[in-house]
Amino acid sequence: HRSPLEPPLDEDAAWDATQAASVGYLATKRAAEELVLSRARELDVVVLSPSNIFGRGDALKSSRRTQVKAAQGRWRFYTDGGVSIVDIDSCVAAMLTAMTPRARRGERYILAGENVTIKHMLRLFAELGGHADRAPSWRLPGSVLTALCFLGELLGSSSFTLERARVATLYHWYHADKARRELGFHPLSARDAIASSVAAMRHLRLLDSP
């Protein structure tokens, strides 16, 4: 969604083909799901769609660079938009359950956790990283972000791209009622999921010891 006032999406939400056409990542994910579900009559398949996964092992991802900087107290900006944060352990547990008769053949399950704004997410990283006094507090307007990403593409950046600019300011908010009901899915809070991610950063010595 483009507004935080719109309700979180679920498995029955309409596919926005127009928006996906400008974001290759979304289009490829959709194509993969459709390919798998098209074989449901022949194969016992289930599709699990996790939201933004946080936890052990994610600190070195290229998409986690901003969060690492926020945890280090070195990132002061935030954009509009929001994310749904889910912890890796809850996702793995749901995947194991999906391989049992409890999951319905040919069904799609969203594995989403707590919905938070980009600002709140980055401030949690700063706080849990021990730098609450340097938490992001400067809003970066969408127009400025787009200009920076346009320049980034010209310079060959893989982090600052127009595709990322389009995705960053959207509200990727979902609810996982179906997975909770049918798979016993119970994700951690955003704070606890991010705490696990920050602990991994400390283990890798990306952060100072508390």
Walkthrough of the structure:
By secondary structure, the chain is an alpha/beta fold. The chain has nine helices and seven strands; from the N terminus they run H-H-E-E-H-E-E-H-E-E-H-E-H-H-H-H. The chain has helices spanning 17-20, 24-37, 65-71, 88-98, 118-128, 142-154, 162-168, 177-183, 190-203, and strands at 47-50, 52-54, 77-78, 82-87, 108-111, 114-117, 138-139. The strands form three sheets. It has a three-stranded mixed sheet with strand order 2-4-6. A two-stranded parallel sheet has the order 1-5. It is globular, with a radius of gyration of 18 Å. The model has no long low-confidence stretch (mean pLDDT 91).
SSE layout:
Layout (H helix, E strand, L loop, with lengths): L16 H4 L3 H14 L9 E4 L1 E3 L10 H7 L5 E2 L3 E6 H11 L9 E4 L2 E4 H11 L9 E2 L2 H13 L7 H7 L8 H7 L6 H14 L7
Parallel strand pairs: 1-5, 2-4, 3-7
Antiparallel strand pairs: 4-6
Helix pairs in contact: 3-5, 5-9, 6-7
Task: Give a quick summary of the entry.
The chain has helices spanning 17-20, 24-37, 65-71, 88-98, 118-128, 142-154, 162-168, 177-183, 190-203; strands spanning 47-50, 52-54, 77-78, 82-87, 108-111, 114-117, 138-139. The chain is an alpha/beta fold.
